[in-house]
Amino acid sequence: MLTVAWWLRWCLGHGRRLPHVWKCAAAVLLLQALALLELLDFPPLLWVLDAHALWHIGTIPLNVLFYSFLMDDSLYLLKANSDLLKVD
């Protein structure tokens, strides 16, 4: 919970000037929602899909979403640092 609180605090602090922060907040919140599948176990559906399998399936798009956030943030930082290093 401490990690979730830290990430959401970071997102709130940077959300106004960075348009891609919503991806980070969404990934963090959706991952916490998926954690409920680990806690609220249920019998397998069709003898194949249990809560743990659905948790693994649900984390696939979250990796793509968080990677997209990391790429956008890295490009922002590269542009910000290159603007600082320019000599006129």
UniProtKB/TrEMBL annotation:
- Keyword entries, A-Z: Golgi apparatus, GPI-anchor biosynthesis, Membrane, Signal, Transmembrane, Transmembrane helix
Q: Name one Pfam family in it.
A: Per1
Q: Where do transmembrane segments lie in this chain?
A: 21-40, 52-70
Protein's cellular compartments:
Endomembrane system; Golgi apparatus membrane
Record's InterPro entries? Per1-like (IPR007217)
The membrane topology noted for this protein in its Swiss-Prot or TrEMBL record is: Multi-pass membrane protein
Domain of life here? Eukaryota
Where is it chiefly localized? membrane
What stretch or stretches form a coiled coil here?
Answer: none
What this chain does, per the record? Involved in the lipid remodeling steps of GPI-anchor maturation.
Q: State the similarity comment.
A: Belongs to the PGAP3 family.
What is this protein's name? Post-GPI attachment to proteins factor 3
Organism classification = Eukaryota, Metazoa, Chordata, Craniata, Vertebrata
